[in-house]
Amino acid sequence: MSDKTHIDASSETIEGTVKRVLFRGDDDRFAVALLALDDQTDVLRIAGELGGLGDGDRVRLIGRYRQDARFGHQFKVSACQPILPHTESGLIAYLSSGRIPSIGPKLAQRLVDYFSTETLDIIIHAPNRLCEVDGIGPKRSKEICEQVTDQVFQRDALIFLQGLELGPALANRIWHRYHEQTIHLVRENPYRLAEEVGGIGFKTADQIAQTLGFSADSPIRAAAALIHMLGRALEDGHVYLPKPELVTRVEKLIGDDAPIGLELDRLIEEGRLIDDGGLYLKTVLATEIELAEQIEGRLMAEIDPLQLDDDFIDNRLGLSLADEQQSAVELASKHPLLILTGGPGTGKTTTVRAIQKMFATAGLQVTLAAPTGRASRRLAEATGVTASTIHRLLGYHPVEGFRHDENEPLEGDAFIIDEVSMLDQNLAIALMRAIPSRARIVFVGDSDQLPSVGAGNVLSDLMASGRVETMTLTTVHRQANDSQIVTSAYQILNGQQPDSGQPSEESDFFIVPADTPERAAELIETMIKHRIPNRFELDPVEDIQVLTPMHRGVCGANRLNERLQMLLNPDGRTVRKGPVSYRVGDKVMQQKNDYQKDVFNGDVGRIIAQSATGAVIRFDQRVIEYDREGLDRIGLAYACSVHKSQGSEYPAVIVPVLTEHWLMLQRNLLYTAVTRGKQLVIVVGQEKALMRAIRNTDGLARYTQLNHRLRQFQ
Predict the structure, then answer these.
(1) Are 246 and 205 in contact (CB under 8 A)?
(2) Angle between the 219-235 and 202-211 helix axes, to the nearest 10 degrees?
(3) Pairing label, strands 544-548, 366-370
(4) I need a labelling partner for 491 at 20 to 30 A (CA). Which of 43, 68, 174, 602 fits?
(5) CB atoms within 10 A of CB 381
(6) Phi-psi bin for 650: left (phi > 0), alpha (psi -120 to 50), beta?
């Protein structure tokens, strides 16, 4: 169970009052404090998951004494339970601790002087008596009663939750979701935690349910498993699941004793699940239907074709375009919605530049955007026009959502959206809602790359429907045709093993054999430190990127980052210690969008200095200071997953392909990795694994019906 309390027979129990919190982790879980024991005058240093404990709180702690090499004698906490004080001094400390907003130190003293050790009982059970104390009227007595009662409910709830082997941090999260209803709601249906509380999945909720006495064949358990499995399907990219597959997945999870079929029928009858050619969560189906309607509405929009003279492209745009590229520009001038697609070397970038110039020359206000920060910067570099992330374009706020929608649409006459293969269903509908109904749209992307991380397969579905005008560029231009990277990418798409250059040859694509993951890791180290910089004059940190199928394993991103940090930056000054330590000079990647800092998921930078509260990181030409909480949203970036690389390009790419990543080895993943390299690509690994990746297309299909819904409009 995640975040569970670990208690064994050798644990001891102590009680006391928190004198001072010395340190609290950024996630509010780990803390260090000084505790005044009830039966001693000295204070004891305590450390562990203390939840939200503050100065003046009375607690019962379970754990062990230990001798720390740095801090000496202390108590390592396994479980933490708040308890109410029972002495006058304890009551004064508790009431004046700041946890009761309506009571300050002076009023706390007056209350305890008047009611002595019965103070809390009076506040909770006879709050009208508080008016007997000078300075308290009916309104304030009510506020004090509510605030203290809330504290008592919290204490009881935390004791209850930790009795279910939940750690303090998770117990506090549950309390803040349900407050005084916590015990009742968790006892009634612990499975709701998996849907409503972050950090709790079905497995944890299921273990809580077993502790509370729910049987394995409980209908509530079956219903929760059905909802959970559809949620898991969304994480895998599916929008729905066929009924037989959903039932099979649930049976594998909880067995076939539970009334799965009956509960499925009940959920459908209640409208929580919808059977519409497959089983959907209600909101997911609504989004798919709306997206199809939005696309159809664009296709039906009447726009005035832009008038292009015979010499418009050559003379007015100043570009030399191939026939396919000219056709794409002409289609963009006539259609309200166009898809521009093609593989590497086919000239998508030049065509996008031409379409943007054509729109601008016609006097249209043109907006450019892409799903990621790096993709939007590449789009801006290619066109010479400002481009933004889709989230920034739509004015996204983590709490309030998107500012722009159908009620507050964007301004603009034409929108060019790049890297549309990365667009999931939710982001696609948000974008379509916000783009003005009569604006022109050009979607640009490569449908052979990895699909979106989120649910849906938007680009492929739009193309497969046959409803959206599509221009597929197929001609590989002369300069690209000379690249073995491009040739290899198309060989992979065709299910063929790429031709590898020999070490002595002038080539930009190589396959280097390695029998084991450890040998592959050693080769990667050697290539990054010596061979590539010496032969190709590339910087080992700035120019070389390792792209790996998974985070786990000897050649997963996590382990490789540890090795490469030691190899490339062994002596950098440490700016933070922990499960992942960061040093000045480290290459790091932003893991979550930060709109205040204007840094986005996938952006890569370098730590250039230590600051008073964290580190200073350079992203391209911008220098940004991170505090300790901000550092939780970055990761080492000497190696990263192929998924994280989407929308990016690098001078040199190294791709480990090994059987330890067997489940992730798919054709579109290898193709995406290879096409990230501009000057050099090296695949390192085992031939068996390479052939598995090239031949495996089993995991490419996603359960979506956007394609089908669009065809129904014909």
Answers:
(1) no
(2) 160
(3) unpaired
(4) 602
(5) 11
(6) beta
Sign of the Cα pseudo-torsion (535, 537, 539, 542, in order): negative
Q: Could you tell me the two tokens for 449?
A: 């790359």
Residue whose structure tokens are 């203290």: 148
Say which amino acid occupies 588: V
CA angle 375, 381, 384 (to 5 degrees): 130
Residues 80-102 have pLDDT tens digits of: 777 777 788 888 888 887 878 99
Task: Count CB atoms within 10 A of the CB of residue 520.
Answer: 25
C-alpha distances out from residue 152 to 20, 85, 568, Å = 22, 11, 54
Per-residue CA distances from 595 to 3, 392, 396, 599, 603 (Å): 30, 8, 8, 6, 13
Task: List alpha helices for 384-471, DSSP H.
Answer: 390-393, 425-434, 458-465
Sign of CA dihedral 474, 482, 696, 427: negative
DSSP state letters, 578-646: SSS-EETT-EEEE-S-BTTTTB-TT-EEEEEEE-SSEEEEEETTEEEEEEHHHHTTEEE-SEEEHHHHT
* Residues in CB range of 623: below 8 A, 6 or more apart: 608, 616, 617
- Please calculate the CA angle 622-628-629 and round it to the nearest 5 degrees: 90
Give the SS3 label for residue 700.
Answer: helix
- Give bridge partners of residue 545 from the DSSP assignment: 653
For Cα atoms 620, 449, 321, give the angle at the middle one, nearest 5 degrees.
75
On average, the pLDDT of the chain sits at 90
The single-letter code of the amino acid at 517 is: P
Q: Would you state the structure tokens that stand for residue 343, as one six-digit string? A: 């593989």
CA–CA dist 485, 507 (Å, integer): 9
Where does the pLDDT of residue 577 fall: very low under 50, low under 70, confident under 90, or very high at 90 and above?
low
Mapping DSSP to helix (H, G, I), strand (E, B) and coil, where does residue 361 land? helix
| 480-503: pLDDT as tens digits | 567 899 999 999 999 999 988 676
Contact at 8 Å (CB) between 523 and 514?
yes
Quote the pTM value: 0.81
Q: Which structure tokens are listed for 480? A: 């690209």
Q: Are 630 and 594 in contact (CB under 8 A)?
A: yes
pLDDT value at 8 more than 70: no
Rounded Cα gap, residues 205 and 4, in angstroms: 12
Tell me the β-bridge partners of 68. 72
Tell me: pLDDT of 7 over 50.
no
- DSSP per residue, 518-576: HHHHHHHHHIIIIIHHHHH---TTTTEEEEES-SSSTTSHHHHHHHHHHHH-TTPPEEE
- Give whichever of 109-123, 151-165, 427-441, 610-624 has the largest mean pLDDT: 427-441
CA distances from 82 to 18, 256, 473 (A): 10, 41, 66
What is the rounded CA–CA span in Å between residue 236 and residue 239?
A: 9
HEC secondary structure over 92-104:
HHHHCCCCCCCCC
Q: Which long-range contacts (CB under 8 A, 24 or more apart) does 612-619 make?
A: 614/575, 614/576, 615/575, 615/576, 615/582, 615/584, 617/588, 619/590
Check the CA dihedral 54-55-59-63 and report its sign. positive
How far separated are the first and last CA of the chain, in Å rounded? Answer: 51
